[in-house]
Design a protein that fits this description.
745 residues, eight-stranded parallel sheet, 21 helices
Length: 745
């Protein structure tokens, strides 16, 4: 289209907009802002650039008390129901809306024309979506309402206009809903904010930033804003307070499964084991009463020898029975005795060692399957000096095997349990989700209360979601007791950094989303400051990232939640697997392809953008969600691996006793390239990202010290970079190349 015709059409569009009657103009040397005070429509014109209708405005309000200066305007809506201000500060337009009482209010309506060349969208690590991309448009329309704290990793988005970017920063990230809507063949975006009865005077604040021709400009401005507000925590400062956190630098992240009391090798006489379990009284009779039907059947079979399958069934049932036996001392209580909880597992272990000595090996300190001194030695001997080993089943494994935890710590590893306080279960619910059993008082009194007086149902429709301030005494007591007994030197708090935040309308202890966020952050900080433990959590979303050193779920997030083929249809090639067997759950270990459109949306390299790393590299170390570790998705493993190395974030793996030998070579190979780079760069900011090829398959990241990482996602060599490779270009050193291994584990 000729330039003159395009300009004519743009002028016509703007004349039809609310801004045709706009009377509020703010201007400086960088740009000109035209506002319609009645609708909050915003037209911006960068110096020497063309105008962009950033917001076409919401439904008109009655305007009064309008006051304007060169760089600021203030006015009211609807007879003082809302007070608004607009301030121009260099390259930022700062908007603020304050309500007189609780209400929901439409704030912005970004028209499709504002998108320019493409959308900058912080879904997980971040994405660049070319304007008109049909696959992404359908995905966004199907997504539904977007919660700006939970669904976005950063409370911002941007649009690309080639010579500049426009970036909206939600500096009040709470109680916001974004929604995509179709405008012909393109998408518009609306923003709605709720002023709650809990704190109706809290202003809704946001900024429109005029960025350079840099797709990371909005993220960099947000990072700068966090620094200005003293809300940014450099990793180097965290490590000064928590010296053990240094062990995260260069560490691969691993979840261990099969952390029960007994391994197959701990049984030396299967016939005698069955005899003891048939006893009329004592510990054998108690454990027999706690066995599942399949294990009970094996106990009573008449054949003298058990095959491997029968041994596995019996051992699995016996380990579950031992767990139940230990839990009897603390589950189903008004409030668990955390000291009794921490001591109880050792008591059961000692009793088993005494009464089952004729069937089991000795001593009990050597028992165990995946969590064992043998596993720790294997990892050490494999040349892996830095690992974060997290017990996927929770802290019970550490209470069964404090000696193995100690061996891991002595090896220089970080040893952490999975732990959770976000959901409190009723006494009879899912007894195996031990971390969510916080007692009947927490289930009742700490539950989130909705506006209608109902209690908020918890994760997977179990129990209740909780107020972190209310469960805090339980957290402090349990973490302290378990850590003292098991010897963990790191901790993982599930869900606390996801940005999943609630308003709670309890009359005595109400809570806003902002208070929920601070409660989550304070819990992580308490563990760090009082117990000197590096703390991690899920995702690492911006509003809840303070207080944690690492997070799982940013590089590869939760996807396909509720998708029938992925989660229900066991005949589908995309079925991710069941949470069984407990020592090696298929949901974590079964390799599967990722279906479309998820494959293209989340993994197409030409549409990925390191927005999160532009803010938090050098503050929070992020990796994959445990549902999608580095080996889970078979048809995007190369893209996954290259992007992870390009962004300089650690891999994440699941290990069991049975998979250790098979998976170690992959872990060793990548660690050899990743570890020295991450030790160097983990505390540095990512300062630049750019595409080096027109098809965007050759990409480069740059860090504070000038180190450049170049990834070639193409199969063939490009500009001297080998196909499917990452090249590390460290100033003053020779290039180092890592090429994806085409052989899959």
């Amino acid at each position: 289209m000729p330039r003159c015709l395009r300009l004519t059409l743009m002028v016509c569009m703007l004349l039809l907009s609310p801004l045709a009657v706009a009377g509020t103009v703010l201007e400086n040397a960088q740009w000109r802002i035209e506002l319609d005070a009645a609708t909050l429509a915003v037209r911006v014109t960068p110096a020497g650039g063309e105008p962009v209708l950033a917001s076409s405005g919401v439904g008109a309000h009655e305007v009064s008390q309008l006051q304007q200066a060169d760089q600021q305007a203030n006015w009211q809506w609807d007879k003082g129901a809302y007070h608004l201000s607009a301030t121009l500060d260099q390259r930022d337009l700062i908007l603020s809306v304050t309500a007189r009482e609780a209400a929901e209010l439409d704030i912005l309506r970004q028209p499709a024309s504002a998108m320019g060349k493409g959308l900058i969208w912080p879904l997980a690590e971040g994405h660049y979506i070319p304007a008109g991309n049909r696959l992404w448009q359908d995905f966004l329309l199907d997504y539904g309402d977007v919660n700006s704290t939970q669904d976005l990793s950063l409370p911002l988005w941007g649009v690309d206009h080639a010579s500049f970017t426009l970036n909206w920063l939600l500096t009040n990230p709470y109680n916001n809903r974004l929604q995509w809507h179709a405008e012909g063949q393109r998408l518009g975006l609306s923003l709605r904010h709720e002023f709650t009865a809990l704190d109706p005077g809290a202003p809704m604040t946001l900024r429109l930033n005029l960025g350079e021709a840099d797709l990371l400009a909005g993220a960099k401005r947000y990072r700068q804003w966090l620094v200005e507000q003293v809300l940014y925590e450099p990793l180097a400062q965290k490590l000064q307070r928590l010296p053990d956190g240094e062990k995260l630098l260069g560490a691969s992240h691993v979840y261990l499964w099969g952390n029960d009391l007994l391994g197959l090798g701990d049984v030396r006489d299967w016939q005698q084991l069955r005899t003891l379990l048939r006893a009329a009284d004592g510990l054998g009779a108690q454990l027999r009463g706690l066995l599942d039907p399949q294990a009970t059947q094996v106990v009573h079979v008449t054949q003298p020898f058990l095959d491997r399958y029968q041994q596995a069934v019996l051992l699995r049932g016996l380990n579950a029975a031992l767990d139940k036996k230990a839990r009897q001392g603390w589950q189903a209580k008004t409030e668990p005795d955390m000291q009794a909880l921490a001591e109880g597992y050792g008591v059961v272990r000692q009793a088993l060692a005494q009464e089952f000595a004729s069937a089991l090996t000795a001593p009990p300190e050597t028992w165990g399957s995946t969590l064992s001194a043998k596993t720790i030695k294997t990892l050490q001997d494999s040349g892996l000096p830095r690992l974060l080993l997290t017990l996927g089943e929770g802290w019970e494994g550490g209470l069964w095997h404090p000696e193995a935890v100690r061996k891991g710590v002595e090896a220089g590893y970080l040893m952490a349990p999975y732990d959770s306080y976000e959901t409190a279960l009723a006494d009879t619910e899912n007894l195996d989700w031990t971390t969510a059993h916080l007692g009947s008082r927490a289930y009742r009194d700490c539950a989130i209360m909705l506006k209608n007086g109902q209690l908020k149902t918890g994760f997977q429709k179990s129990g209740h979601y909780t107020d972190p301030r209310c469960v805090r005494p339980l957290l402090q007591a349990r973490v302290t007791a378990v850590q003292a007994k098991a010897g963990f030197n790191a901790w993982f708090l599930d869900a606390y950094a996801t940005g999943m935040l609630f308003d709670s309308y309890r009359s005595v202890l109400g809570m806003t989303q902002a208070q929920n966020a601070e409660g989550n952050i304070d819990a992580a900080r308490w563990i760090g400051s009082h117990l000197q433990l590096p703390v991690g959590s899920e995702d690492g979303n911006a509003t809840t990232a303070r207080g944690v050193l690492f997070a799982h779920g940013m590089q590869t997030p939760v996807m396909g939640w509720g998708d029938r083929e992925m989660t229900q249809d066991k005949q589908s090639p995309y079925y991710v697997g069941a949470w069984y067997p407990p020592e090696e759950p298929a949901v974590f270990f079964k390799r599967v392809p990722l279906k479309e459109p998820l494959r293209s949306v989340y993994f197409a390299p030409a549409m990925r953008l390191p927005l999160y790393q532009a803010v938090f590299h050098g503050s929070v170390i992020t990796s994959h969600h445990w549902l999608y570790d580095s080996l889970k998705l078979s048809n995007v493993q190369a893209e996954n691996e290259l992007t992870q190395l390009l962004y300089n974030v650690p891999p994440l793996y699941h290990l069991s006793a049975a998979t250790l030998k098979q998976r170690l070579p992959m872990i060793q190979r990548q660690a050899g390239f990743f570890r020295p780079l991450h030790e160097r760069l983990a505390t540095q900011a990512m300062t630049d990202f750019r595409w080096l090829s027109n098809d965007r398959l050759v990409q480069q990241t740059t860090f504070t010290d000038g180190t450049r990482l170049v990834a070639n996602f193409a199969q063939e060599q490009r500009d001297g970079y080998p196909g499917r490779s990452v090249t590390a270009l460290v100033v003053g050193e020779s290039p180092v190349v890592y090429q994806v291994d085409q052989q899959r584990p």
